[in-house]
Amino acid sequence: MFLCRIHMHALTRLTPEVRQYLLVTGNYWAFTLTDGALRMLVVLHFHSLGYTPLQIAALFLFYEIFGVITNLVGGYLGARLGLNRTMNLGLGLQVAALLMLAVPTAWLTIPWVMGAQALSGIAKDLNKMSAKSSIKLLVPDGQQGTLYQWVAILTGSKNALKGVGFFLGGALLALMGFKGAVLAMAAVLALIWLASLVLLKKDLGKARAKPKFRDILSKSRAVNILSAARLFLFGARDVWFVVALPVYLASSFGWDFWRVGGFLALWIIGYGLVQSCAPALTGKRRGHLPDGRAAFVWALLLAGLPAAIALGLDAELSPQAVLLGGLLLFGALFAVNSSLHSYLIVSYAQEDGVSLDVGFYYMSNALGRLLGTLLSGWVYQAYGLPACLWISSAFVLLAALISLGLPRHGQPPLGPA
Fold it and tell me: Rounded to whole angstroms, what are the CA distances from 107 to 41, 44, 182?
């Protein structure tokens, strides 16, 4: 009791902005744990039932399609209704999606699971768009270094916890079975959702001027260019990471649920930690903030790595050393690229109705994931993992070339497209 009073007293001494930041981050963390666990549960459970890689990819089809739609419409809703409402709506929908999967095994047909994944995709992107948009409003406009640090911490910690979620999904599947796992996650998330309804600041992010529906399409050339680069960057990751990699680890290396979930969890955790350190890696300690040139350079550094891994696999070198070592390096470089993009979109976004620009940008992110997910299942099944890696390299190179159009320090900001 004494320790609880100390913690409560410490919280009351924080500024309102910091308290809201902690609430937003905690909310996002809780959601992310269930999102990562659910993805691993679905991939491993349905692979064990004999589903092909393409069929497993199809289970995520609505997840990604509705993510695209949600980011467009969700940004508009966040500006009109407030980000607290869209964030809490995301939590509630995730509880419903988990409960949809807690049905007898005979009901878990492809259309039913796709429907549950559609709800989960809507929930995930409402929650993420709300969290990322909120940071813009909680940091004074002139403190770009603080903004970069807060965005990096939120993004990096989220991905670290997503990695924990991957491990959690594999562990829960082994210990409790599929139905028990989704019921346990639904119960915990429902409690967090009820707390968020009470504690999160009302009307956070509601635009002063009511946006029109046509405003969902960004009018900023810088946001449009960054969104195009984001599409190919995340397509490059998911074309081999979503379906191809876990299925390859299970079938070619003979790994069980624990090993696949555990390794991917550790990879995502490391990826998130690098994201949190991205400001230091990109020069913030020397007073440098990233611009379009930084986005181009870091993408170019990443572009050749998937192709190098593919060449190593085709050369019949040790597949475990080539794949696992290459994957670790890919994760570190990809984490810096992702963190740079996350800072740049929040920096470019207009403060009034910030969720409109952020929503449009994450629509492109979701479209890239959709493209990568579909290709991951189809290309892996037809041509194998090396083909997925070659496509990954081509996508990163496209992201780098698109980034050449982003503004640099000393240039006037890019106006309407």
Answer: 16, 18, 15
Residue 332: which of 276, 371, 285, 283 has the closest Cα?
Answer: 276
How distant, in Å, are the alpha carbons of 24, 152, 179, 388 from that of 102?
28, 35, 5, 33
Q: How many residues does the chain have?
A: 417
What 3-state class would DSSP assign to 291?
coil
CA 364 to chain centre: 12
SS (H, E, C) 101-113: CCCCHHHCCHHHH
Find, among 191, 183, 158, the residue nearest to 35 by Cα: 158
> 195 forms bridges with which residues in the sheet?
none
Phi, psi angle pair for 416, to nearest 5°? -60, 150
pLDDT tens by residue, 315-340 = 878 888 999 999 999 999 999 999 88
**147, 135 contact by CB (below 8 A):** yes
| 55 exposure class (CB count in 10 Å sphere: 0-12, 13-18, 19+) | middle
pLDDT tens-digit map of 327-380: 999 999 999 999 888 888 877 776 555 666 777 787 888 889 889 988 988 899
In a 3-state reduction of DSSP, which class is residue 252? coil
Tell which phi-psi region holds residue 203, choosing left (phi > 0), alpha (psi between -120 and 50) or beta: left
